[in-house]
Structure formats: structure tokens, C-alpha cells
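Quick illustration, no need to memorize.
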Amino acid sequence: MAAPGPGEYFSVGSHVSCTTCLGQRLQGEVVAFDYQSKMLTLKCASSSGKPNLNDVILINLAYVSNVDIINDRTETPPPLASLNVSKLANRARTEKEDKLSQAYAISAGVSVEGQQLFQTIHKTIKDCKWQEKNIIVMDDVVISPPYQVENCKGKEGSALSHVRKIVEKHFRDVESQKSMQRSQAQQTQKDSTLSS
């Protein structure tokens, strides 16, 4: 393979500015560059505006009309941060379990409302699972179809009370979201009638 020509490679840590073929200007620090695929990875200021976060942008240089090197880094880049492999493995295992749980619910014929309620509960209480079409929370509370507050059964106490509050709030939020969508649809219909 021939050595890359001037401007065809980018040192990690350099600051560059690119103009895409659509005229969009991107600027940031080079995190990685793959010569064969001509892919450039930039770390840019966060689009959310939060100072402790960054956006990472992958750029295909085949779709870039201009690249300017603002600050070329010549020294050796700092070593990469070490990865906590066990933490990553735990996260992957948890995500896999969550996806399998969702797939189980779908295959068991659980209603969409039941699946949504399960997701809402799972955000707050990780210890929840499916048992056929029933949601089991902390091995203490069972929520059976049609998954309303009155369908929450278990030993009276703080766990049952907490789960009932989550279920109540979930259905209040769903109902307010539906009413907002209805009012938006009615407003759109009024606007289109007035413009006709």
C-alpha cells in the first residue's frame, strides 16, 4: 500500500474542520481515522449544550468537499482509557435479559398496554419479570390482565402500595398523552378547515 499523500491522513488529537457536500460545516478533534474506508471520527462540542458531554461524529470523507486542519497534533496521543470489561459484560447481559423478556411477552400474547406498563415499572424497579401473562414485581406483587390498579395483588404493605402508585401514574400519563394527541388532531383539523 502506498503511503498516504499530504492531507489524506489525520493524526489523533488534531483539530479539523470539514465541509460536507451539503454545505454543513463540522469541526472537532480527531478521535480516529481509517485510511482504507476514508472514515474520520470527530469529537465535537455537545449538541445538548452540556459542558461535560461530547458528540461523536463519523464522517465519510467521500462526501466531504473540503477539510482544513486547524491544529495538527504531532506528539504521541495519550493512551486510551481502560475499559471495565466486567461492567460492560453485566450491561450486555442485562440488556439481553430485557430483550428476551420483551420477546417472551410478545410471544405470550401480552397486550400492548401490558407491555408498556411492564416497561414503566421496570424503569423504577428492576426486579420485575413475566410469568405467563402476569407481571411479577419483587416476587411480592402480581399484576394480572387487564393490568389496572385493581389487578395488583400481593401482601398488603409498602411494596404493593408502591407498585399501585406506579400503575396509577402510568395510566394517568397514558390518558393525558392521548388527550393531548386528540386536542392536537382537533386543532390540526380546525386549521385545515379554516385554510380551505
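Residues 1-7 have pLDDT under 50 and may be disordered.
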